[in-house]
Amino acid sequence: LVNGLIMFSFPAFLFLPRAIKRFLDKQDRQSWFLIASFTISYFIWFIPNQKSHHYVVPAIFPFVFFIFTNLDKSTYHKLEKSIINALCLLLLCVLFFVAFLSSSIEIPYFKQPSAAYLIITLTVIFLCYIFLLLSRKFLFYFFFLSTFFALIWVLFLPIFLLPTVPSRVVTLTNNRPVSVVFRKPYFIQEGLNREIKIFSHDKIAARIMKSDEFYIIPEDIYQTQNLGANTEIVYKWPLWKRGLKHQAIINALKKQNSGKLVDYLLLLKKRQ
Predict the structure, then answer these.
(1) Residue 214: is its pLDDT beyond 90?
(2) pTM
(3) Chain centroid to CA 173: how far?
(4) How far apart are CA 201 and CA 185, in angstroms?
């Protein structure tokens, strides 16, 4: 929830210390109302056991309103340029990290861009940043900052996308019935673009004995339920593990081994 608050309010949260300082000086009723609204909308989500950064979205509005209603124009303009410079540097660091990662770690079924493509792109971005430093017009800052975000979102993030249902699986199943054991089967149904049959892990073995169709099952369930005796693997593909700790990612980068960062889904069919 804390990560969600920072992520969804960025870069407004960078102004929070100045906003708090000004609020303590005046303590107007409007700010108290925004604080109360934020407190209720934010801390109520600490009650459920399951937490997601999306739960913090309702609290973002009073949080951001509190910050900007407690900033004077002189403070805003004073911090504006330094924050934008920091954003540009941060984005450059992200892009260089992506370039390093894509060239240094091998990921199964991972389409790596050429080194030349990355070097040229990063060089252009670096030159744009130098131009920003020399420019004093906010419009240029806004334009190139938007371009940086677009490059990351459109060109670089998709490099690391591991689809829940690859196109190869859609082709192999060819509109035949599919039974699924998966934590969120909706994504598989959406990927296949047709109805699926959903089963729990303890009932899938009985289903395989009764019917002849395709099955999409996590590899760990395939192993624990001993499904290999009655099925054969048609296709296997990776998915990023959920809830990875940063230390696990760092260790994988050091060892240049992505095996511990992914789980596998299997497309099975019954042995004839």
Answers:
(1) yes
(2) 0.56
(3) 28
(4) 13
